[in-house]
Amino acid sequence: MSKNILILPGDGIGPEIVAEAVKVLNALKDRFGLDVSMDEGLVGGAAYDAKGHPLPQETLDMAKACDAILLGAVGGYKWESLDISVRPEKGLLGLRSELALFANLRPAILYPQLADASSLKPEIVAGLDIMIVRELTGGIYFGQPRGIRELENGEKQGFNTLVYAESEIERIVRVAGDIARKRNSRVCSVDKANVLECTELWREVAIRTMEKDYADIELSHMYVDNAAMQLVKWPKQFDVMVTTNMFGDILSDCAAMLTGSIGMLPSASLDANSKGMYEPIHGSAPDIAGKGVANPLATILSAAMMLRYTLDQDEMADKIEAAVNKVLDDGLRTPDIMSEGMQEVGTAAMGDAVVAAL
Ligand code: IPM
Ligand code: MG
Questions:
Q1: Which of 209, 238, 258 corresponds to the end of one domain?
Q2: Pocket-testing residue among 84, 90, 93, ligand 1, by greatest number of atoms within 8 A of Cβ
Q3: 98-136 pLDDT, tens per residue?
Q4: Domain range holding 89?
Q5: Considering the domain boundaries, does residue 201 fall inside one?
Q6: What is the DSSP secondary structure assignment for residue 288, as one 8-state letter?
């Protein structure tokens, strides 16, 4: 049965990079019979400009009805002074929470062809392959109460709430356990249990869940500050990391940069039935938007992840990943991953090369 993909280009470099992923999907349709249809919707600043809201009702309706979502990026200087309730980021956060996409998978893989792009020594990062499993619909991002209030002395006070129920912790720990089973059977749960009660509970539930149903998985625990340090010091000690929404936000940027290019890394946000939203890990990069130089590979690889995790099309995903490897082997590089002796290309040329390599 034909599957429907909702394409949400968003802002900044979003439309440019998503266009290349769509090219790749169309090539799979034309040449290999991939049976999907695609619709496009507005989200983020683009949606705010057109409809007055970063997540218009019609986009939300389409997102609920489709089988999978491919998103570019949201946000930009233009919308930074808007009220927080209608900032582009709210479009993304709204999609995550409305669709209950609680499991965010952020792999950090070092492509051997790009070993030089990392700021760490090659021996520290060679062969790096980590999966960060970030809780995405709870924690301090969504906890109530929140806001900015005025104290009796007239001073303002900002406040947010870190909350996790046992069920929220258990389901994300299970996702990490399931993924670890397909990898190297190790999960490191990251918390701040020495200071925050909420993550003391996190640790307790992680232990309980793993002892009960994942006895074959080796579970370890690390405080988030140490985890940040260990990621930079000796990243290969990790297999799967599982953590809260905000810690995952921070650690996944750190892990991504170990690989030298955040422009290479895809991500998946899944609900309990593996319906998902797929997007590059990087943001909308307004500084290079419209220049045709953004790296489309993270978005193209996000499309591959979508084919694998939500659309059950492993073979098509393999084809995309092999094609990306081929263009890297051939020496093609966008400016973010450029190194001496390689051939520098722009966004569209990179997309075309992947299509040609399929
Ligand atoms: C991410 C981004 C988002 C987040 C922003 C754009 C709201 O940084 O996906 O990591 O903080 O989750
Ligand atoms: Mg982030």
A1: 258
A2: 93
A3: 999 999 999 999 988 888 888 899 899 999 999 999 999
A4: 1-109+262-358
A5: yes
A6: G
- Domains: count for the chain: 2
Condensed to tens digits (0 to 9), the pLDDT of residues 288-332 reads 999 999 999 999 999 999 999 999 999 999 999 999 999 999 999
CB proximity list for 190: less than 8 A, separation 6 or greater: 221, 222, 223, 224, 227, 241, 242, 243, 244, 247, 251
How many angstroms does the Cα of residue 266 sit away from the middle of ligand 1? 14
Residue 67 and residue 80 in one domain: yes
249 Cβ closer than 6 Å to some ligand 1 atom:
yes
Domain containing 194 — which CATH number? 3.40.718.10
pTM of the model: 0.93
What does pLDDT average to over the chain? 96
- CB 171 within 8 Å of CB 208: no
